[in-house]
Amino acid sequence: MQKKQKGLVWFRNDLRVNDNESLTNAIDENETVIAVYCFDPRHFEETKFGFKKTEKFRAKFLIESVTTLKENLEKLNITLLVYHQKPEGSIPEIIAQNGINSVYFQEEWTSEEMEVLENIKLKVPDSVLFKASYNQFLFHPEDIPYVIQLIPNVFTKFRNQCEKLTKIRPEFTVKPLFKENLIANETIIPTIQTMGFTDFEMDSRTAFPFRGGEKEAVKRLQNYFWETKKLSVYKLTRNGLIGADFSSKFSPWLSNGSISAKTIYWEIVKYEQKVEKNDSTYWLIFELIWRDYFKYISIKNGNSIFKIGGILEKNYDWKTNQSSIKNWINGTTVEPFVNANMIELQQTGWMSNRGRQNVASFFAKNLYLDWRIGAAYFEAMLIDYDVHSNYGNWMYVSGVGNDPRDRKFNIPLQAKNYDGESNFQKLWLQQKLF
Ligand SMILES: Cc1cc2nc3c(=O)[nH]c(=O)nc-3n(C[C@H](O)[C@H](O)[C@H](O)COP(=O)(O)OP(=O)(O)OC[C@H]3O[C@@H](n4cnc5c(N)ncnc54)[C@H](O)[C@@H]3O)c2cc1C
């Protein structure tokens, strides 16, 4: 008789049960399945630029996301073990104690994530199989019409070819295991305090008044598409600055994988069949392709996305003036529109896309500050931080990435066009300037 196979699903940035290839494969291929998530202490340490890798906003969102994941897995009769420890510390032990044959996880290609995986492999017997899947893309890497090294440096070329030639795969479904699959679990999910932060109430002015987790992501999808039909006007409102509904706000859930880009895509298709298909419904797909594109740029260019010269290896004279950096962070520059956006980020962990483009352009192209410092600050603060989108966009705006036109934003003009009545600036600067 064939030996009983035991699988371990190692969750990282794919914190969901629906449309999760790793989880589906683990259930299909094994008799018993356990799951694990590690709050890696390195993700909360300070980096060389003096900011924590993760600040309180994303830490809280992550705790909420893992809490929901645990509940959802329990409904499938799968136990989620949660550690506040390096994966290299806990995973080899789980493998040894439970006689795990295969480990299932989302493929990551950035150097720190690859190093962690290699460290785990060094500590377990060669017989343990490591099975990675690309859970994070809209266009699966095996389906795009390019070998990675030939991915174009211009987005439009990439998008046109993929739209023409690549079919989006269906979602993965998941079925529960039998009750006895659950195991004793004494691990606990850390609290915001045990992660080293002081608990906080979210600022009521936030444009992102949502919680983490798959359930909340699905609720938002239902609300934005079906209940309010905001999807129908997305292209007209997406450059807004105030409130929850000018854009989808999917990014924090997409970033930690509480929802997949494919799930959103197939729901748009359903919406187009049942409600209407217009420029706005298409434009949300267009933006999801941007998200994919920066992932492909990161696979293609490796660690260059973190280097000062970016993927273009430009040799600009970047400055590191501390008082200019502080003024930018604290919203005390000469530009009220930049200041309002920076205060919003500091108070809430959120900033609109329009805001991000402006403050990043101001940082790199008006103040000539080393763009990696701005990117590292965003990395700490953003609820929706995603390594590929963050560094890809920062390079783009700073003239060392994928913008063929190397634009500089005219901040006062942007403020006039997008905040004509100064409502956004009033909201965040309050009595300071008005
Ligand atoms: C300097 C800078 C840094 C950024 N850092 C991040 C980051 O760390 N994480 C992140 O998710 N996005 C980042 N973005 C992209 C973009 O600002 C956010 O994805 C968007 O504001 C999220 O809001 P939303 O979900 O309502 O977007 P919507 O307008 O509703 O768009 C839907 C989805 O499309 C994707 N998307 C939209 N615009 C972009 C874009 N420019 N690049 C990549 N994907 C996009 C996102 O997944 C988003 O959730 C950055 C942009 C800039 C200019």
Automatic annotation (TrEMBL):
Its cofactor is FAD; (6R)-5,10-methylene-5,6,7,8-tetrahydrofolate. Keywords: Chromophore, FAD, Flavoprotein, Lyase. PROSITE patterns: PHR_CRY_ALPHA_BETA (PS51645). FAD binds at residues 234, 247-251, 287-294, 384-386. It comes from the Bacteria. Binds 1 FAD per subunit. Binds 1 5,10-methenyltetrahydrofolate (MTHF) per subunit. Pfam families: DNA_photolyase, FAD_binding_7. One of its GO terms (molecular function) is DNA binding. One of its GO terms (biological process) is photoreactive repair. InterPro entries: Cry_DASH, Crypto/Photolyase_FAD-like_sf, Crypto/Photolyase_N_sf, Cryptochr/Photolyase_FAD-bd, Cryptochrome/DNA_photolyase_1, DNA_photolyase_N, Rossmann-like_a/b/a_fold. Gene3D superfamilies: 1.25.40.80, DNA Cyclobutane Dipyrimidine Photolyase, subunit A, domain 3 (1.10.579.10), HUPs (3.40.50.620). The record marks 318, 371, 394 as: Electron transfer via tryptophanyl radical. Residues 5-139 form the Photolyase/cryptochrome alpha/beta domain. Belongs to the DNA photolyase class-1 family. May have a photoreceptor function. This is Cryptochrome DASH. It comes from Flavobacterium urumqiense.
